[in-house]
User: What shape does this take?
Amino acid sequence: MRILTLVKRVPAPGARINITEDSQYVDDKNLGHAVSPHEECGVEAAVQLVEQYGGEATVLSMGGPEAEEQLRVAVSVGISKMVLVPTDGAPKDPQQTAATLVTAIEELEAADGPFHLIIFGNESADQGGFQVGIRIANALGRPMVNGIKGLELPEGQDPASGEGHIIARREVDSGFEVYELPLPACVGVKEGINLPRYPTMKGRLASKKAELTSVDASAEPGGQAQVRLKSPPEKVSETVILGNGPDAAPAIVDLLEELGVM
Amino acid sequence: MSAVLVVIEHDRGHVPESTFEALTSARAIAGGLGVSVHAAVMGDGGDLAAAAVGEYGADVVHHLTSPNLGDYNPEAWGQALAGAVAAESPAVVLASGTDRGNELMAQLAARADLPFVANCVDVAPDVTSMTRSQWGGALLEDATLEADVKLISMAPHTVEASAAPAAGAVSELAVDIDDSLVRSVITDRVVLSEGITLSTAPVVVSGGRAVGSEEAFAPLEELAAELGGKVGCSRAVTNNGWRPHSDQVGQTGTRIAPQIYIATGISGATQHWVGAMGSKNILAINTDPEANMVTKAGWAVIGDLHEVVPAITEEVKKRRA
Ligand SMILES: Cc1cc2nc3c(=O)[nH]c(=O)nc-3n(C[C@H](O)[C@H](O)[C@H](O)COP(=O)(O)OP(=O)(O)OC[C@H]3O[C@@H](n4cnc5c(N)ncnc54)[C@H](O)[C@@H]3O)c2cc1C
Ligand SMILES: Nc1ncnc2c1ncn2[C@@H]1O[C@H](COP(=O)(O)O)[C@@H](O)[C@H]1O
Assistant: This one.
């Protein structure tokens, strides 16, 4: 199988999120960076599918040059190729992001043949537009289901041909819906589909040596524009300390009784 | 027409509360624009769903029909909505920002080549500017929207659903759906849990990294069972493989809204907090009085969770005896 997985570099804040002076992004000077946990699982899903069915997995990110860090992390856990679609790093609206990525994916497919499966995160960790994957799938004329927590090929299907279906399990409140999507297909995966592995020493070395492919693509802005970011109004509540250690148990149970949950 | 068209989400006829919230938001927006509220339903059980929405202010319910509309299918349903938009030219199309609501709006947006603003929490009367949620609700974005038809979803729980009976006249609207779109179809359903879930539990007892192991969750299980609640956890826990991801509270886990959230050994990172902040009351149990979870909670106990949790269970049992 030929698989493409898409990740977006984002800051990883802890107890607080600070905003830059121009109100346009998270102040990430002192922060580490990551991708959405959904996308981390998308990378792991691609690696597992290749382990199981053979083939090759590519990771792609659109963003500033720093996004190379997240691409190399993906390679360190088993992805074989990495592609950067470079931008100035400023946030782009969902239509612009999708259109740019479509151009880039078409260029990659024109060179090396179609991806049988394209894996997105359910939503990006920062902007959370819930749409880039669906827009790309639609532009490429491929089926797409979001919220996927299980992926496998039907038994007996030849994975190398890129023909046939992929079985995708989607999480709903009561359990799973099962979809059978004809290939080539797109899915948006959710954290929980797997437990991402940590890089091995060998993986780390491979990721240092891997070659970064750069694909230039751009598109016009869409109809949605970010004006500013702001922090939500915070409810300031004085914390009532009920006590220290196990001696606090009676006070805790008083509270539970008061709240009517006993 | 020029109405606010509300996408009615339903599972084989059952309409979730979030859709009634969407109808409630739509009434306010339609009022500001001086237009009426319409609804779009489709698929198996669509007639049942159609009957339920007049109660919440839909003047007209468009029942979209096609031989290719059956069980939920994001592509076919998205194409049907695109057909309804082409036929009715609404000013605004609005859904609830649930997984399914956002998925349908994105499918519609892609097919109609329109922008789509997900998870709004506040919308200007003319719908050309809005505030939306980013970072799972930890940040807000002021945005502008320029489009002939304005597609938005409202973040769940932005408003409380309120009834406002309207005509709810159902009219059928035949839509064209290409046979090829029948491909994204549900072939099976696996039912895992009946009864209370993490998102509906009245009590959630959560453990973080400090719990230490899979086995060490047993006392939390016991307390949760005693209180008729569920066990939750942080991402540090699911990452270690101690609990399934379905127990994770947070931005990429479940958003909970219990009567009380008991968070033990959890630092309260923003990505965890956004999943917990809908709780009516929060009790943090932590060795660190400066932990974010402690300073943000209404109630706290400073101490070792391994001692405090069993002591609570014992006290509960004692009072019940
Ligand atoms: C994009 C993104 C999305 C994320 N989504 C989620 C999400 O959905 N849910 C989520 O939970 N996290 C999420 N995270 C991870 C999050 O940032 C934190 O890393 C995580 O929540 C930390 O888990 P924790 O509080 O259990 O661990 P820690 O931060 O290590 O905290 C452990 C706490 O236990 C206390 N402690 C230590 N010993 C004891 C003891 N004996 N008794 C009592 N207390 C003790 C410590 O004082 C500390 O406060 C996400 C991260 C990113 C980047
Ligand atoms: N800049 C980007 N680079 C690569 N993939 C992206 C980018 N933005 C969004 N995506 C993909 O699209 C998914 C949905 O993004 P969003 O619509 O922002 O929620 C993400 O989980 C990624 O897989």
Summary: The radius of gyration of chain B is 22 Å. The longest strand of chain B covers residues 116-123.
